[in-house]
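[SOLVED] Need 3D model of a two-part complex

Original post:
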Amino acid sequence: MGRLSVSAQWRDWPLVVRRAVPAILIVALVLAGVWSDKLRRSSEVYTVIAAVLVFFLARSAYKGFWLGLERAGVRDARDRWQRQSPLRQRAVPPLVIAPLVILVAWAGGLAPDLSLIVLLAITYLLYLLPRRVRRFALPLTVLGLVVAYPYFIQQADYHRFLFNLPVFSAFPSMDTMVSMIIFAMMAIGLNMVVGYAGLLDLGYVAFYAIGAYTAAWLASPHFAAYGISFDLGSVAEKGILQVGGIHLTIWLVLLAAGLLAAVVGVIIGLPTLRLRGDYLAIVTLGFGEILPQVARNGDKDGLGFNLTNGPPGINPVDPPGFGHWLSSHLGLPVSYLREQGTYVNFVSLMYWTALGLLLITAFCSIRLRDSRLGRAWIAIREDETAAAAMGIPLMRTKTWAYASGAFFGGIAGAWFATIKTGVFPDDFFFNISILILSMVILGGMGNIWGVIAGAAFLEYLNLEGIANFNGWMNGHVLVCDPSKQNPSSVISGGCLNAPLVTFGIYGAIIVLVMLLRPQGLFPEQRRKLEFETGVHDTPIQDESA
Amino acid sequence: MVLVVLVWLGVNLVKTPDDFGRVLLVGISQGALYALVALGYTLVYGILELINFAHGDVFMLGGMISATIALQGFGFSVQQSPALGTLIAAMLVSLAAAMIGCGLLNVTIERIAYKPLRSAPRLAPLITAIGVSFILENVAIIWKGTRPVNLPSNEFSAGNGAQIFRIGHVVYTWDRMFVLAVTVPVLIGLIWLVKFTRQGKAMRATAQDKDAAAMMGIDVDRTISFTFLVAGALAGAGGVIFAFYSTTISFYTGFQLGLFAFTAAVLGGIGNLPGAVLGALLIGLIQNFNEGLSWHSPGSKWTESIVFAILITILVFRPQGILGERTPEGG
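Solution:
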């Protein structure tokens, strides 16, 4: 049990320490925000964060107050505490504490203006909601914030309204957000294979590539060279339509991409899925290397038929849109490219659609997990032999896991191609497979919310976070002389060039998670038990004990 | 399929016998290099059933160590070919340094990253190994930057050596000899170590059954560490040969070459030492036939696909490899 020793030691520490450490961290964060002169406007948000923390600690403090009274000699103090209604237990303490918070803020030089008080009041009301409603309050708030994100970020001076992230300095841009969502979709897809069914797939990027190329074949002038011309509900510009090629509406393209990826998944899976564990991982890695090479070489020279247009890739791919009929009947945008508003424009429409696709993916994933098929996956993951003995058809069940994982990977790939309005074979490296895998591992194999969080975080790091951190280090910590910097080395001229080692950081994350917390940051309960007690080496006698 | 390949080879042999002979010799040299790396995979797999993904990167770091010694220690400059004496001295010194360095590195990796996971689900150490592989690649980036490190072309570098003997138009040169001159003694040493020493016996016993070996008084942890030490030293030797032979090495070298070597180990039968050598020679030949022959060969841009297709085919249809024994996992 060596690998669990760290978490075990953590549990051995006194409760006070365990509560205090995160509290101190958060308070430090708040203080950093309040006292940083760069983040002047952000103090409101930090104050609200502090208030929320105080609210949630308030009940314990209030209880402590009554217990203290009892210890001091008031006889029925404990009973009086217990007789209070839960609402009162929660409602009273912040009423005492909130004015104190405002007072402290005021003493600290922050005029408690109206907006702050309104924010505090809203927080308080959310806090007072009954538990059953509060369960949904957090997801709904997060969803609302995510949906409204383009309205914040696309304001030129959004920093006045939002606080800056410490160290990472800026919020993710719209493009990064779209990418984060696409990777979250892929991570959910991979999670079905790795997290639910326990089959390690090291070549997931292949499905992503297939999805992207399907979009390129079905919605671009690519096949015009072979005299094929076909248009169904496409919203491409007239000039492009005249060239020819296949132009299908994006919604059918998405479906086709998913289905084709699933079919390829079945074709790859049927011969290989009877292999167990690491052999399967290597086979998938092989496919993950072969398919991108086919994409790179798939032009006239390499294949004798221009399938993928070789290294330059296929460009342009049609933009998405709803077409004229839906536009005139439902008021949906004809083509995303034609929307040029400040907030409602190409990139935010892409974002919302991706978000919708992500929600559908997450929903399907959860429903699949709880279905007969999903329970069969988990049974196979926990003990293949026992699952087979219980009558689960191993091959069929695993093939379904593979196909469903591939389906969502394909959709994500197709959406990726339409966003970049092109497909480029160099986007499909082995590294990407491992990036997606580390998202699943970091978030917690099997737990879909953890996987989404892991994907968002790692893709943010990949596109912006590490670069921002690097800029902050060079500006604040190191003595950097850009004129002496060598772009191909990590440390030169006093400057750090951290983006070069992005994948080293992922490697370190993978190793640290596997060693210290193999169930991931937000583990699925069941998976956690597997890692703690071990699946295969639990003696049968223990079951009755 | 095999028939088609044989016919293709035969036609090539008849059409361009000189090319064929030349490619054959290069292929054997390259195969010998793969063998050094493939043996590391096979040794570790045999004892832990772990595909040590980081092995290729240990090999790459061996090459980096040797390049550093040649460039900094012996003052090689890229423009000028070194004298033969200095070259051999540099080669021997870096061989010793890289074998020791990579061996210790491999042991450290095992202690830190794999040992705590020995009782975890089987995929956990594999995933960790991938993480370690990425870390090692990035250690090389931090150390040497993203650009490849270049050595001067020398008597041992590919296509550069003096002639030893010739048959018709086919010339056998020192650079090809050099690879074999390092590889063959190392292989013989390895076979002696595994077959005829106490430590080798302990390794074989541990590979067969860890619990039983422990009961017989074998220190299993030490034996596993020793296996990693040997595997790392082999990879280090491979790295040195690669650095001098191809004269250019970058942080990415280890990944692809590692996968090829792994394919070789699987082809021969993973866990089987002679199998790894046989598989490595085959992979070396296949790669060079593909890249060097002119009549209807797919060419170097399909090499990876061909090697991985072989890997997949072997795993699917004959997971025990050419010489290996059938394992339940492959079944």
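Edit: Residues 2-128 of chain A form one domain.
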